[in-house]
Amino acid sequence: MPDYSSYGEFDVVVAKQPCRRPATGWSRDVFRLQVHLVAANVAVRRGRRDGKGAVKVAFYGACRPMMEVFRCDDVAGREGDWWMYEVEAERLEEKVGMPAGSCKLSLPLWREGTINEEYDASKVASSSAAASGRRREAYATVIHSSDAYVCGAIALAQSIRRTGSARDLVLLHDKSIPEAKLQALAAAGWLLRQIKRIRNPRAQRYTYNEYNYSKFRLWQLTAYNKIVFIDADIVVLRNLDLLFSFPQISAAGNDGVIFNSGVMVLEPSLCTFKALMKRRKEIVSYNGGDQGFLNEIFVWWHRLPRRINFLKNFWSNKSAEIAMKNHLFGTDPPELYSIHYLGLKPWLCYRDYDCNWNIEDQRVYASDVAHRRWWRVHDEMDWKLQGFCGLSPERKEELERDRKNAAALAFGDGHWRINVTDWRRNA
């Protein structure tokens, strides 16, 4: 970074940005990021602010400036390869005040690897309360194509409320959800917004990914300045309101430089929504879904500790990993902020044990400890809401079939052992 003390004020910050498009990996060019971060820092520290608190930044180059740093809402004009921005300085300060990129945890709220216990949580709460007086903020989730996640969304809303959060809860749904279940979702605390679902043009017909680009509708919630999106297969164990202090996109890592989109901070914007829609046929998602797509749009993001969005999986199946994760799943008071239930969902299993044990390629997601944790959240809900989490006759038949298949295959020993006595008791 430049030595800012050696400069006076600038009326306009001008930057020539590199553009290697269409070369492979052009959007992840670190030099491209560095140019944007220098421009943003100079604008914040030495840019002259107008009467509205905006600073002026101009870019020259064949590529569009990075939306991760400079919002499309702030474009004041374009002429050929020139882009002129009038940027709200306060928003830009928020972005450059934390590391950009996927390697370091976002500071100052976090130190490397763990929650910064020395940071005064009351300061976060007070600053968050002050911010909420100026801007509207909400948690949100999305259900599309079927009602299979209704029970999960009910449990999610109840878990957020039990942490003491008073933020709005907004649920986007399409017309596939029956009226009785919509009423239950509203009773659980969700403000309901019906949407028209968005098809993933690269997905096969009738697959899970077919309409998962409906998540883009979150950027249309412009009544709110910030949204913390949470997938409906997550339960929240500790208050997450401090996430509203983070910029777009803030998320926990999934693998390497990829973020997991199960919990993420975003800033609604019709301009951003249109940009996502415009590129949906162009971008190839690495996993066929919204997570892969968004990782190609928001290449540089702010990393949250994985305890914010702790994935329920055991990739190595080593004793140390199993012991560590099951310890975290079961601690009371909770050490994790949320648990993300990958694999077969708890409400689609019997409560006695995790039915991921019964299917060979799902056993990496099996944890009886995490399973019991979800059912504790379930049991604390009103009994009327619990009624929307019952197993259908068809699902009971599937569970019984899976158990018999597992018994016939005699899956392994230790953590993989199937307890046939438990099966019969649960039948």
Automatic annotation (TrEMBL):
CDD domains: GT8_Glycogenin. GO terms for molecular function: glycosyltransferase activity; metal ion binding. InterPro entries: Glyco_trans_8 (IPR002495), GNT1/Glycosyltrans_8 (IPR050587), Nucleotide-diphossugar_trans (IPR029044). It is a single-pass type II membrane protein. Keywords: Cell wall biogenesis/degradation, Glycosyltransferase, Manganese, Membrane, Metal-binding, Transferase, Transmembrane, Transmembrane helix. It is found in: Golgi apparatus membrane. It comes from the Eukaryota. Signal peptide: none annotated. GO terms for biological process: cell wall organization. GO terms for cellular component: Golgi membrane. Its EC number is 2.4.1.-. Belongs to the glycosyltransferase 8 family. Glycogenin subfamily. This is Hexosyltransferase. The gene is GUX2.
